[in-house]
Amino acid sequence: MNLPNKLTVLRVILIPFFVAAVLFDEGDSQIFRYLAASIFIVASLTDMLDGKIARKYNLVTNFGKFMDPLADKLLVCAALICLVELEQLPAWMVIVIVSREFIISGFRLVAAEQGIVIAASYWGKFKTTFQMIAIILMIVDLRVLNPATWLCTWIALILTVVSLVDYIQKNHKVLTGGQM
Questions:
Q1: CB under 8 Å to 84, separation ≥6 — which residues?
Q2: pLDDT tens digits, residue range 134-170?
Q3: Which of 32, 63, 103, 174 has the most other CB atoms within 10 Å of its CB?
Q4: CA dist 91 to 31, 39, 124, 126, Å?
Q5: Are 87 and 81 in contact (CB under 8 A)?
Q6: CA 76 distance to own-chain centroid
Q7: What distance in Å separates the CA atoms of residue 83 and residue 94, rounded to the nearest whole number?
Q8: How many angstroms separate the CA atoms of 41 and 17, rounded?
Q9: Measured between alpha carbons, how far is 17 from 100 in angstroms, rounded to an integer?
Q10: Global pTM?
Q11: Angstrom distance (rounded) from CA 152 to CA 160
């Protein structure tokens, strides 16, 4: 269990604490919202750090290859579902985002069976960045930031679709067996 894998496990462990904090109804106080945002930020930073450390120090493992993207999806999906519960995000947006994640995960599984590794694209990285920013802004729920929150949310949604199309377009041979 190397450091990158420990960071990935930490991210998974933080998810229930994040969910509890974001859904706790504290009345007029925002303390639990800020706690939830802090937990989400720490968890998001572990996502950035574990990959950088694993690549830099050649600590890439099969566990990390499997768990890192799973931990990312669990964190983001948990946050998005909580935001639907809090009526801060329409369910249809979450359905689009979660559907993209399932499609890409399935696509990667088919590719892996063929010995092909599909690396994360820049579109996917931009999508993740805007998702994280939008989620944090929605969690802290400051009315003054409402325009920025929705701008980031729409950008994340657009990048979700663009990155899906990009993955499929660049790797369509995975599904077609080299034909097309």
A1: 90, 91, 94
A2: 999 999 988 888 899 999 999 999 999 999 999 999 9
A3: 174
A4: 26, 23, 21, 22
A5: no
A6: 4
A7: 9
A8: 13
A9: 26
A10: 0.90
A11: 12
